[in-house]
Design goal:
This protein is of the alpha+beta class. Helices cover 33% and strands 21% of the residues. The chain is built from 11 helices and 16 strands. A hairpin with a 2-residue loop joins strand 2 and strand 3. The radius of gyration is 22 Å and the shape is globular. The termini are far apart.
């Protein structure tokens, strides 16, 4: 069992803006000097989820402190922190989330476990996904998000009790190395066989985080797992969201697991899901559709995906790309450079922000009511794509005469 929820203070270097703070809705922000402190009442699994989110956003974490029960906020050296004055009524409003974007409700312990097909199951906390395959030789787990944490074993136990099967996790397959998908791996001990791409092993050795031990078994391009009479196809088709993110195909279950690419029913998160390789990210859905499958385990948000979800995502991204190309050719940078003079970065930021907003505007209008959060994240997605068009593809990077 997790310990009871406790009040934690997490100290971060720098002032976090409202968009970053929106990623941590359970934590209340305070500011002290050049630092931000997030304070919240969370259990251990939720704390791991918050820390994993900070790692994914590359925040400069300074301290995690367990507060005394009678202490509302810490006061580091230098005096008391100042709290924000913004109330809920002053926060921005966004378009309602389409009902079709929502998945099943979680139980009182904060998770949902459901059958994908036959002996393949998925688990979600409403945000992150994991999956497990029950075989005659044990349970194969796919990813171990810390936000689900100990509920992963509880989900396996639920199915074992209902179906009269074993509940011992014998194998754990990593989709990629990021902590928000792998950070509960250590809960399954050192007798579990961990499997992942060879680059995942290199990166996990580099990270040296005991919460996510590196895989003992690796592969380069393709590997077929035969475990307890079940076949699982692992493949790496190049860098996309991360350099080690893989495709997991369950041919006997009409299912593909590909995380952090398509978010069924939703717009992508910051920077197209914080992807390191934008062209690889844009190509990945096409590779996914080259496989035969009916069900997609996508790693995030509360529902499974379909092939229609993938094609909708492709149209959304293609519209942003087309808008970015148009905006790069039509938004005039002159006014920004005239206004800011020697402050070159202010001019560049003003111009690129204007391009991103121009690229995103028609896409937001088109997909509001179709995808969730298009009015929240389409502008930063447009920025990532327009920068890739410029820097990776060389669009409008004219050579000076």
């Amino acid at each position: 069992m997790d310990p009871a929820p406790a009040r934690y203070a997490i100290r971060i270097n720098g002032h976090l803006d409202a968009m970053i703070l929106s990623a941590f809705p359970t934590m209340a922000p305070q500011w002290h000097g050049a630092e931000t402190v997030l304070i919240g009442l969370v259990d251990r699994s939720a704390l791991y989820g918050v820390l994993a989110g900070m790692d994914a956003l590359c925040l400069d974490l300074l301290e995690v402190r367990l507060l005394e029960p009678n202490r509302e906020s810490p006061e580091p050296d230098g005096g008391p922190m100042t709290s924000p004055t913004t109330g809920a009524a002053e926060l921005p409003d966004y378009a309602p989330v389409p009902r079709s974007s929502l998945g099943p409700a979680v139980n009182d312990q904060g998770y949902y476990v459901g059958r994908v097909e036959r002996n393949l199951y998925w688990v979600t906390d409403g945000d992150y996904h994991s999956a497990f395959l029950v075989t005659r030789d044990g349970v194969v787990l796919f990813d171990a998000p810390p936000s689900i944490g100990h509920n992963l074993q509880r989900a396996v136990n639920d199915i074992a009790a209902a179906e009269g099967v074993g509940n011992t996790v014998t194998h754990l397959v990593y989709t990629h190395h990021h902590s928000d998908h792998a950070g509960a791996s250590s809960l399954f001990g050192n007798k579990v066989v961990r499997i992942g791409h060879e680059e995942a092993r290199r990166l996990l050795l580099r990270d040296n985080d005991p919460a996510k031990p590196p895989p003992e078994e690796t592969f380069a391009d393709h590997r077929t797992l035969e475990i307890g009479g079940e076949r699982i196809e692992l493949a790496w088709h190049g860098s996309n969201h991360s350099p080690d993110n893989i495709y997991i195909h369950f041919p006997g279950h009409d299912t593909l697991m590909l995380v952090d690419i398509v978010l069924p029913g939703w717009a992508p998160f910051y920077g197209i899901n914080l992807s390191e390789d934008v062209p690889g990210y844009i190509d990945a859905p096409g590779t996914a559709l080259s496989y035969p499958w009916k069900h997609l385990i996508a790693g995030h948000l509360g529902k499974l995906g379909t092939r229609d979800d993938v094609t909708l995502h492709q149209r959304y991204i293609a519209d942003i790309e087309a808008g970015a190309r148009t905006a790069l050719g039509t938004v005039d940078p002159t006014a920004y450079f005239q206004k800011y003079g020697e402050n070159l970065w202010a001019a560049v930021r003003g111009y690129l922000d204007a391009v991103a907003e121009a690229a995103a505007a028609p896409v937001i209008e088109k997909y509001t009511g179709v995808l969730g959060a298009v009015d929240v994240f389409t502008v930063p997605t447009a920025f990532s794509i327009l920068e890739s068009i410029r820097l990776d593809l060389g669009y409008r990077m004219d050579v000076h005469p």
